[in-house]
TrEMBL record:
The gene is tsaB. This is tRNA threonylcarbamoyladenosine biosynthesis protein TsaB. It comes from the Bacteria. Residues 30-224 form the Gcp-like domain. The lineage of its organism: Bacteria, Pseudomonadati, Pseudomonadota, Gammaproteobacteria, Vibrionales. It comes from Enterovibrio qingdaonensis. CDD domains: ASKHA_NBD_TsaB.
Amino acid sequence: MTSKILAVDTATENCSVALKVGNDIIARCEIAPREHTTKILPMVDSVLSEAGLTLSQLDALAFGRGPGSFTGVRIGIGIAQGLAFGADLPMVGVSTLAAMAQQAYRRKGAQHVLSTIDARMNEIYVGGYQRLDNGDWTNVVEEAVLPPEMFKPDCGEGEWYVAGTGWQAYPELTSQLQLSVTESGVLYPESEDMLILAHHAFERGEAVDAENASPVYLRDTVAWKKLPGRE
């Protein structure tokens, strides 16, 4: 892997930045709810300084495209677009759910992963992934947002690892799957793992200009109780 790619992610409670140059990865990561806007740029400066590089020397900028918190996803893509515009870099969006699958592989050697994120409002973001021989991942359970009781994927056989906060928020999930699962210990996505996915996407020609980078919320509308007299 020779591409020089910077990845940033603020889609969940975790705030992270990572830079890959050749076989070297420099990463910063901190659980910092509501502090992403003050943490992320110093992290970017730190990894670039350690590598002795400037933004303009990179090949692409990757970002956590979601799903996750609406505010977190917007912060991440906004900061990533600002950096990419300034340095004239193409952008690559990476699924936060898929990034957790890669993290489960990095930590546990997982080849099949079911990722969930607590989406609040009694819903979860879900996705299932299988690792390919080239180190990339294929989506075998479509990414979606749904009530926990409706998550009953047809995963087939094999050893499946689980990752993300959804399993913690809804412990009953594992009992309804009808397959044996193993805990990965992964709760949040990290930019370090987005680099792998971003590299494959970049090699496939999936990078876009900064103005065309877009988030993936999965939940496009937020339901709330209307006040009397309001439409």
